[in-house]
Amino acid sequence: MYSELQKKLEERLRAVLRSQYQIEPEKIVIEQPPEVAFGEYALPLAFELARKLRKAPRKIAEEIVAALGSVEGFIAFEVAGAGYINARLDRGLAAHTVAAGGEVPAPEQPIHSLVEHTSINPNKAAHVGHLRNAILGDTFVRLLRAAGQKVDVQNYIDNTGVQVADVVVGLMHLEGLTLSSIEALMQRLAAEGRRIDYYCWDLYAKTSQWYEADPAQKEARRKLRLDTLHAIEHGGNETAEIAEIISTAVLRRHVETMLRLGIEYDLLPRESEILHLHFWDMAFEQLKDKGVLYFETEGKNKGCWVMTRPGAVRNSGTDRTGEPLREENAESSDASDGPDEDAKVIVRSNGTVTYVGKDIAYHLWKFGLLGRDFAYRRFFDYPNHTCWISAATGEPGHPHFGGAQAIYNVIDSRQSDPQANVIEALRGLGYTDQAAHYTHFSYEMVALTPRCALELGYEVSEEDRARPYIEVSGRKGFGVKADDLIDKLIAATRSEVDSRHPELATAEREAIAKAIAVGALRYFMLRYTRNTVIAFDFKDALSFEGETGPYLQYAVVRTRSIFRKAGITPDEALADAASIDAAPYLSGEGSEGIWEVWLRAAKTTLLLDQCIQTAEPAYLAKHAFQLAQDFSNFYRRHHILTEEDPARKKLLLATAAVTQRELIRSLSWLGIDAPEAM
């Protein structure tokens, strides 16, 4: 409703500006007044036009208001201050529209989006930092689907990287295990109820320390690491088989861990298939043919294939036929004759491909531009769909993957430069539309507060105790394992639920405790904007007060209690609101709080659009919290069940109903359940 009214107002304003001043503004800014008593919209338009029209802003505002006439959904336009235009909605009509609404309009042409998130190295248990990535990505998937987009969810698996190699080194050279004894180890761990990802967590840290433990052996151990990595990349040997078994087992644990938070995937594309199916070879030909890459013959990058930088002068190197390259910028006659030392290396002089090169190939596949596809096999069955994994040889019946129109990569901010390089490569290849629809959904890290680290039993120096946070390090084994965190949150909430609701069955109390714990964790990760470092703390995440998930869930529980006592359903309350004239109860003394709830509830769909346009779920989290706050203020001031005026009581019940509807909808988009009791 709110966005539709904005569109109507904007259309009318454009018509006025055309007829009055022959102006076609690129954008019309619509703001909110500091207080709802001043109106629902504030327009600074007159200030923007003052210089062009050479008139005082207030004079322009008066002329615009005089020309506006009536606009559907609005009852008045007023000039305020030095030239603001305040717009007042027809509150009664707006409330009826909100009560009858609730559905997100389907897009005329839904697009096919691909969201890649989580992407944990399959060498150890997931930790708290990984949860921010997965929760952000999963929430954005929910937002896109709510907006009517077709979305594929992918979790990229680097199963041939150095982190997996480190665990294999640990197994083979520190533990002295062979392929058969590793298989026996996994069977023994399963029989003892121990987890392979936890075992690898400790082994990875142990191996990382072993590399540096003996200075005399440092080079030899580093070479062992590199040889192991090359064996895994090449495949067809025992080392690669060990890497396959371990990485697949750890990956399955990751998928199970994320499912506890309601996070699911459609496809797990693996690095091994990108290598063995020669995706890079296909991409390499395109990049050379289009001149995006050239072979450097001078300077520090001699012998490498490097990527042309936009606007750079390329004065050395040869093309794929061996002919010398020289591209002069006519406006830069004093340009250096030397090589471009800052060019991005894509293929090293030893013939190995960099991370960026493989990523370019992968993203050409994502957009359906590579000319080659994975094979696929089933990996994990969810209640409503199957998660597939890439394979060299697969099985029939798989969905179609790739060929997306828009890509969102949830990858931390430290990868901004590689992500930018992929986008530049797409542009260089002529895929400008695809480059424009490639979004690096970046975020900052999750650390631990010193208090949290102490609670976990880590030694914390006096210097670290004075810091606001301590960085997580998987290589050092320092951090909170994701499953341990979830278990601790559930245990804490279970204790609270048991004390409040001993009358409920055990399974019901367990379900409520899990919903509260997951809600607390997901909201804690989503309430901060993506560019904010999160310092995780158990006390803050578990709080039932303030800006937390449980606070929002409790607001829904409170509305449910109202309807149980009133003997009416929320849908019936919203239907009853259509039979009254709501306007007298939405204005005047004591009524602004009621209207604020309706006004906030009307903005949910607007927030959906805003979150997608800005790739920032935190805005929806804040909106839901503010709606819960508005309802709490309303609930304290108005006695719904004892209200004697029948029409007013209907409106108060409808206010609780619209709050419940929009809170449940917002929470579902955030991946948070609203339990029946707390």
From TrEMBL:
EC number: 6.1.1.19
Keyword Acetylation: no
Domain DALR anticodon binding: 552-678
Keyword Transport in record: no
Any GO CC annotation of this UniProt entry: cytoplasm
Family: Belongs to the class-I aminoacyl-tRNA synthetase family.
UniProt name for this protein: arginine--tRNA ligase
